[in-house]
Amino acid sequence: MHTLYNFVSGPLAWISFLVFIGGCLYKIYNLITLAQQKESFIFSVMSVKYGLRSIGHWLTPFGTVNMKKNPVMTVVTFAFHLSLFITPIFLLAHVILWDESFSISWWSLPESVADMLTVIVIAGCGYFLYRRLTDPTVKYLTTASDYVLLAIVAAPFITGFLAYHQLFNYQLIMILHVLSGEIMLVAIPFTRLSHMIYSPFTRAYIGSEFGGIRHARDW
Amino acid sequence: MSEPEKVITDENLERCLAGLTQDRIKKAIDQVLKKESGARLKAYVETCVHCGLCSEACHVYLSKDNNPKFSPAGKVKRTLWEMIRKNGNVSPEFIKEASIIASTECNTCKRCAMYCPFGIDVAYMMATVRRICHLCEMTPMYIQDTAHSHSATMNQMWVKDDEWVDTLQWQEEEAQDEMSNLRIPLDKEGADFMYSVIGPEPKFQAYLIYNMSIILNAVGADWTMPSLPGWDNSDMAMYTGDNEIMGRLKREHFETAAKLKVKRIVMGECGHAFRSVYDMGNRWLGWKLPPIPIIHAIDYFYELLKTGKLKIKEKYKKSVTLHDPCNVIRGGGLAEKSRYVANALCENVIEMTPNREHNFCCNAGGGVINCGPPFKEKRVLSNRVKADQIKATGAEVLISPCHNCHSGLEDINHHYKCGVEIKFFNEIIYEIMEKPGE
To answer: Least crowded by CB within 10 Å, which of A73, A156, B6, B41?
Structure first.
């Protein structure tokens, strides 16, 4: 158990972070190079003003027509994504790990709040799963990989919750938690989870096209 | 409730199906996906998380009772996903189906890009599918014929060089009965603007040229029209994926204007011509913006009304509602100017809902109506939401400042019995304007 734990929290952690960061940087580099080679007009269309305008509307809850049309989805997805980012970064247990490893630390969430945010993420995954299984339009677009991705995202939060509350076999759950977190990190550049990296670009582009060339709003 | 559809046979699709090889298909797909496409396609395909939020944007999906296969992402699933998954090794039957989907189930209206959280442009992806089908020669017959017309005559309607000038002179003569000193100045170098129309106008909508010449003469405009090919601003090649012809057409149109040394081009009430000028044709030619400014008729009427050059006898009395053509409003930012013109001309303007950028497509644009009679019933049945919108306004007249919209809406009007009269702006202006000498 201890060797396994040391492995996943040591070398494997280094590898996964490198793959995650390197993978994300490579994806951005690839996107920009591809644009330069094939669609260089993108650079003359891209506009800071219109790009940010579009991103701003779409990052605001109920800031677009489609968000207003889908209120439940809007609330869930904002709560889910915010909790998804805030929890791993500001969780006390994670901050302690960074402090112990590299002597850097930052503000952390009260543990009850972190607990609640974790539940929000898991509930969010549950809602997305329910939606995929029951809404015919979403079901039509769904493939096996969509369920796998949901599992990849839910796993670190489920195992994290279980580990914090020390339910079941603590040591095993801890190892699974670290491992599932690493799997998620590594999955981001290579799966549809990369929407995290690409969506600011696609949003800024269409915002620029609609705003700067079409003189219309895209929300 | 949507109605059941009959089976459709398109002669060109069938002919192509008989001779198409898998080898050719693979070459076409490889060329488009690997050589011609770039960052946008890659980003769109990899970023779509299959959330389905684009579906309620699409008038086809909504009119078909929320049938999932007609959602924007659903259409991409039935075409590009499969082509990518099989690495280009898809069957001729598949390409035929893909062509039908991309050419007749999507108008490339871009409403979906406003509903997708990531701004994924499914219209662009459908245009990419059309390009792949074009390279396989798998294009519906009527629109392929139109593209051939563009190629052979530089206009959309097989109008011969002499027929063009004859039509202008005929309309000029007719209009002189109303205004004796009316001229349609041909090839006047250095005029303020060149007026351009789409192919169908001389062919079967010559009254629009008539109306415009009355208006332009009444306001004392310094205008001209070209006598040579290059007068047609339309571009159906853009919609078949025939980018090469699209580029030739745009270049010809602007070179014609450049030869006449005009300061700008004013185009008639058309939607897609506008788009081929600032969105697709220009990019193929490497222009950021058109070399000579080109403005839509709505913009020009706005100018005339705002400056008081166009005088109205009395406002139009019948109640009107305003259609927002996709390429002019969502595509050209003319929502407010269009409303200014409508309100300046008409006493009672009733807005339809949704409106402006969020208005629904008429389902005729994007080359769909140009796929002709075989697909007419399908097209009408995919636009029920538009009919519902129109009926809900209770207006007597529907203003539709775009030729394809006008024709498509006439079909909707007829099928769903909306009971409206459909008019262009210039028809209303002609009816209520002050004519010199009256």
So the answer is: B6
CB contacts, 8 Å: A53 with chain B: none
Separation between Cα atoms, residue B317 and residue B432, nearest integer Å: 10
Token pair for A24:
């994300």
Same fold, B152-305 and B312-432: yes
pTM for the predicted model, two decimal places: 0.93
**Three-state secondary structure readout of B120-153:** CCHHHHHHHHHHHHHHCCCCCHHHHHHHHHHHHH
The residues spanned by each domain of chain A are: 2-213
- Give yes or no for A144 touching B (CB within 8 A): no
* Nearest chain A alpha carbon to B116: A66
d(CA B396, CA A184): 59
Do the beta carbons of residue A141 and residue B52 sit within 8 Å?
A: yes
The pLDDT value given to residue B334: 94
Evaluate whether B428 touches B316 at the Cβ level (below 8 Å): yes
- ipTM score: 0.94
- Annotated domain spans of chain B: 11-139, 152-305, 312-432
pLDDT band at residue B438, thresholds of 50, 70 and 90? low
Cβ contact, residue pair B39, A32, below 8 Å: yes
Give the Cα separation of B60 and B108 in Å (integer): 12
B233 has a pLDDT exceeding 70: yes
Which residue stretches of chain A have pLDDT < 50? none
Phi, psi of B197 (to 5 degrees): -125, 175
Q: Tell me, what's the pLDDT at B274?
A: 80
- Taking CB atoms and an 8 Å cut-off, how many pairs form between chains A and B? 137
Cα–Cα distances in Å, from B243 out to A208, B32, B83, B150?
A: 23, 12, 21, 12
* Closest CB to B43 among A44, A201, A207: A201
> CATH number of the domain at B312-432, please?
3.40.50
- CATH number of the domain located at residue range(s) B11-139 in this protein: 1.10.1060
CB atoms under 10 Å from CB of B12, counted, come to 19
Q: At what angle do helices A111-134 and A71-90 cross, to 10 degrees?
A: 140
Classified by CATH at the fold level, domain A2-213 comes out as: Fumarate Reductase Cytochrome B subunit (1.20.950)
Place of tokens 């793959």: A19
Q: At the top level of CATH, which class does the domain B152-305 belong to?
A: alpha beta
Measure in Å the smallest separation between the Cα of B34 and chain A Cα atoms.
Answer: 10
Q: Is the pLDDT of residue B394 over 80?
A: yes
